[in-house]
Amino acid sequence: MRRWRVGTLSMGMVLIAAGALLLFAQINQVKVLNQIMKWWPAVLLLLGGEVLWYAYRGKEESPKVKYDVFSIFIIFIIVSISMVIYGLSEIGLVSQFQKMVSAQNFTQVSDQTISLDNSIKKIVVESVQDSMDVRFTKEKMIRVRSTADVTADNRGTAAEILGDSQVKALKSGDTLYLSFNSVSAGSDLGYHARIIQHTLLIPEDRAWEIHNQSSLKLYADYLSSDCVIDGSGDTEIRLGKEADVKVEVSSEEPLRLGGNVKWTVSGEENGEQGPFRGTYVWGAGMRHLNVIGAGPVDIYQMN
Q1: pTM for this structure?
Q2: Measured distance CA(20)–CA(210) in Å, rounded
């Protein structure tokens, strides 16, 4: 009499179901992993049902159902894998893997506007860990554009991860303090965002101070107020024809000055003993731009 192997029917049905599921997912643009996670317990039901069915069919004292080592091993592997997948799903690792597999890279932009009243005389930008471009505007408001690399499944999710507000404003007396969201959002195993660039537009008629710890580019076509840049980051200043400014760089360490202008440097006669000071004057030097710190400073005169 023909001997049956437990698992043959179940494995055949699993293969047919898997093929149908993959075909359905391809046609309807459904995530295959989601469907597999919903239906994998059916494998256990099929195997258990097949064992009971063959045991029921075997009316004789020794039923003609063959349990060989290979069949038992395959069943053990399937059950073990099923339990592992279920456990990983319960602790959230499967969903993280889904995100990682389906993720794409997007460049996302977030714009923000901060209104100013006449009581604000000075703007202080707190320490920034990301690259920043600063420009001046005649508008009576601050505009901020933040650019980020976002990993997500689509652009809508990328916009949600980045959010709309990358700057927090705090007013104290006649001074407005700005702080930026510089820390990456999200998980390295799933969706996340990393700020790569801030562009800041500041009203030209307000005094301002920037604490720079990364890379700062200042586009000064004109200056209507005195300014301060403080920190150890790289500073690049581009002066327009109407800037009319005196730039002074001071540090306790030897200066690193560059650009396409001629600097006047003092303090080097003392060897390695500071303080060191570098000066560049364009026009009459009506406005003062003070740079404090040990970072490199480059000035480019735009003709």
Answers
A1: 0.66
A2: 61
